[in-house]
Amino acid sequence: MKPNHDVVRRPNVWPATGLLLVIVVVGVWIGRSATRDGVMLAALVTAAGIMAMAWLVSRDSAVPRWVLWTTAAAMSIVLVTGALFAPPEHGSETRTTAWMLPWFLLMMGTTTSRKSGWCDISTTRGGWIMVATGLFLALIGVLAPWVPKWW
After folding, report:
1. Rounded distance, CA 82 to CA 16, Å?
2. Which residue, among 60, 146, 43, has the nearest Cα to 102 in the 3D structure?
3. 65-85 and 91-98 helices cross at what angle (nearest 10)?
4. pLDDT of amino acid 53
5. Any idea what the Cα angle at residue 23 is, between residues 20 and 26, rounded to 5°?
6. Each residue's pLDDT tens digit, 17-41
7. End-to-end CA distance of the chain
């Protein structure tokens, strides 16, 4: 089988996986209280972890840095804003989905990327698709607790 030279080498995922574990454990531990302060602190810790994941992954990722940083910033803003305005009883539901935000950066930043096609991450269009997907994931965690009220 002929090697595919369009695929970029994948960076080492172990440091980022360790960081993800720390973010999840600390975020869950801090946010275990259902008070407004507990929910807000958990969101801030997770947002800091999201930015740390963007920094760690961006060092040797095939994904352009602007894509990782923009995605991380959008997800962090949505997470913290959601914790700020949501009732405290929604905090537990938000916390159960917050782990996937740094995980999304880990997966997208360390997975090999093809250099052709509609979702080519090195193009502007592909970069904005990743940003929109990260924003969508963050909005799921923030808006999901409200869905039963809307139906």
Report:
1. 25
2. 43
3. 160
4. 92
5. 145
6. 899 999 888 877 876 776 778 888 8
7. 53
- Cα separation, 16 vs 23, whole angstroms: 10
Q: Mark 10-23 as b/e (b = at least 16 C-beta within 10 Å).
A: ebeeeebeebbeeb
Q: Is this structure's pTM higher than 0.70?
A: yes
Q: Give the sign of the dihedral formed by CA 57, CA 63, CA 68, CA 69.
A: positive
DSSP string, 88-111: GGGHHHHHHHHTHHHHHHHHHHHS
Q: How many residues does the chain have?
A: 151
CA distance 88 to 35: 6
pLDDT in tens, 88-124: 666 666 667 788 899 999 988 887 666 777 777 778 8
Q: Give me 105's structure tokens.
A: 């950066």
